[in-house]
Write a structure and sequence with these properties.
By secondary structure, the protein is an alpha+beta fold. It has a single domain (about 10-90), classed as Winged helix-like DNA-binding domain superfamily/Winged helix DNA-binding domain (Arc Repressor Mutant, subunit A), CATH 1.10.10. The chain has helices spanning about 20-30, 40-45, 50-65, 80-90, and strands spanning about 10, 15-20, 65-70, 75. Strands 1-2 form a two-stranded antiparallel ribbon. It has a two-stranded antiparallel ribbon with strand order 3-4. A hairpin with a 5-residue loop joins strand 3 and strand 4. The chain is globular. The chain starts with 7 loop residues before the first strand and ends with a helix.
Length: about 90
């Protein structure tokens, strides 16, 4: 899948091509919705990615420790609990 704009990349020479704007868009969604918990299939549908592209993008986000996989197979921000605690303390 080729998104518009940004630097085109090949994730670890797998032949799967995606664009920096794809990563930025996904990171933006997770930042805007701190409690976002998506399965792999939900991610594919939400961001209209084919299976190989979604896997390549997801692997990059996992390697960068932006996302982590929960025991129930959903993907959440690595700092989700920390950001929720900070928000709670700011409100007090």
């Amino acid at each position: 899948m080729r998104a518009t704009g940004g630097q085109d990349r090949d994730d670890n020479n797998t032949g799967v091509r995606f664009d920096d704007s794809t990563i930025a868009r996904i990171q933006s969604e997770y930042r805007e919705m701190p409690g976002l918990r998506l399965t792999f299939d939900q991610m594919r549908r939400l961001w209209m990615l084919d299976q190989r592209t979604c896997r390549a993008v997801l692997d990059q986000l996992l390697d960068a420790q932006f996302l982590k996989r929960t025991r129930d197979g959903r993907y959440v921000r690595c700092d989700f609990r920390q950001s929720m605690r900070q928000r709670h303390h700011q409100e007090i």
